[in-house]
Amino acid sequence: MLKFESVLPIVSELSADLAFRPEEQFIQIEEMQARIGGRPVRIRSQLSRPGLAERPLENLVFPQWGGLNFGVLSLENGPEGVEVNILGLMERGKFGTIWLEGRRPGEVFYCAGPINRPLFRGLIKAANTEFMFPFDETLPPMEDGIVYNVLMSAEWDVAVRVLENVRYVKFLPGGLDRVYTNILIEEGGEDIDFTGVTNDSTFRILGQARTSSGVIEYLDMTFRIEQGGARWDRASLYPVTWGQARTTVTDSLGFTSQIFLTVQTVDATMEKKEVDDIVRQEERRGRWDQIRFKLSSDNPNLGTTEAQLLASLGYSERTLQTKAMDVIGINTDNYLLRPFFKPVERTIEHFLQLDYVRFSSRFTRNFLDANLNNNLQVNSRLALLRSSRLILGKYLSRNVFLQYTGQVEAGVEYRYQSRGLGLRHSLGLEYRISPQVLLELEYNYDSLMLYNRDDKRIMVRHWFPF
């Protein structure tokens, strides 16, 4: 039984059939079999020869071992694939499933020389994987740096193909709050090529990834992805990125508005000029290191600028102290409670075959309110559960999304006569008829309301491009 740091699960049932050819100092691996995390893999070796691959391959020769030659290794896995964790691209301790295949017909996945810059060539198919980008350089170092050093010094000639359930999951910096992203990458798109040496200037990523599903959390709102994508080119490791997400907010009178969160960049030449946001040269795409998230709405009564919209949502100078407490509470809860919530969410997603499960808590904010607000007429222990929320989401098809939201409410708002705690349920079905036309069916039930506890809505929304 072997352990390869956090890159692979435990390797077991290792067996090998080896032969030595002294005239070439060649140790031939006729067949090496093992199980990685219980899944079978096989390694073979052969001497480099013309036509073995579309590009020349060198043998793996170890000068420090008297010139021992391991040839060119071919790596194969079973139908279940193999689990891996790539430090910096995946959360530590979390594995994704990959399948190794040949880069071109007639090839297999190769590991070739030279030993100081090993070459990996092939096709990697990925599924059931969560990744981060850019590389997370804040993770703790690996216990033994051998595998890490090999990966960093290697030359890559690899294409990555996205299969089912590949997600981009990461916290990103935002204007007032961190932005939590959980984005499902579309399968069946073009391959993404990784070429060059990892730790020098030759490393490049080429290709495109798209998405039309997933969620983004910003402030106290949950946005659903409408469309987005990223394209890598040779000009930079940072991709050109675009996208938009949408959520629905309801005011105190029960009227709904659409709030959009859009990726944008601003022309740097206009940055120091005293002009309004709507005058600046804004583009709805840009390099990853230059983008920002901008809020907008389909309701002009909420404001025509982002500052006015934020004020309508309660983030104005007048309410800054209260909202600052909210933001601090949200970030504290994410730091303290997310590690406990996340495994439960993933288990429910897998068991119920859902696309999105999210627990959110306002425990810290409620704790501060209970200690600072003497007029909070709710049982102080139960008040800690106020605004706790469970969201379940499922794409029934590419254009049909079903979502349930359950939230704990407290009778501290004027529309409630009861001063206890209750549950507000929301069940919604969205059908995207076209990119500009959306049909929404929604049912809401609020247990704290004395009258009109349930609310049924049918809405058709149409966006007109300008």
Class from helix and strand fractions? mainly beta
Uncertain runs: 269-280
End-to-end Cα distance: 63 Å
The residue-averaged pLDDT reads 80
Number of helices: 5
| Approximate strand percentage | over 45%
Helicity range? 10-25%
Please tell me how large the radius of gyration is.
27 Å
Query: Main sheet?
Result: 21 strands, mixed
| Shape, per Cα inertia axes | elongated
Total separate domains:
3
Number of strands: 29
Topology:
Elements: E1 11-21, E2 26-36, E3 39-46, E4 61-62, E5 68-69, E6 72-77, E7 82-84, E8 96-101, E9 109-112, E10 119-127, E11 129-131, H1 146-153, E12 155-162, E13 166-172, E14 179-184, E15 192-197, E16 204-211, E17 213-218, E18 221-233, E19 236-250, E20 256-266, E21 282-283, E22 286-287, E23 292-297, H2 306-312, H3 320-352, E24 356-360, H4 363-372, H5 380-383, E25 389-397, E26 400-410, E27 421-434, E28 437-446, E29 454-462
Parallel strand pairs: 10-12, 11-13
Antiparallel strand pairs: 1-2, 2-3, 3-6, 4-5, 6-9, 7-8, 8-10, 9-10, 12-15, 13-14, 14-17, 15-16, 16-18, 17-18, 18-19, 19-20, 19-22, 20-21, 20-23, 24-25, 25-26, 26-27, 27-28, 28-29
Helix pairs in contact: 3-4
Describe the structure.
The chain has helices spanning 146-153, 306-312, 320-352, 363-372, 380-383, and strands spanning 11-21, 26-36, 39-46, 61-62, 68-69, 72-77, 82-84, 96-101, 109-112, 119-127, 129-131, 155-162, 166-172, 179-184, 192-197, 204-211, 213-218, 221-233, 236-250, 256-266, 282-283, 286-287, 292-297, 356-360, 389-397, 400-410, 421-434, 437-446, 454-462. The chain is mainly beta. It has a 21-stranded mixed beta sheet that branches. A hairpin with a 2-residue loop joins strand 25 (389-397) and strand 26. Helix 3 runs antiparallel to helix 4. The longest helix has 33 residues, at 320-352. Mean pLDDT is 80; it is low at 269-280.
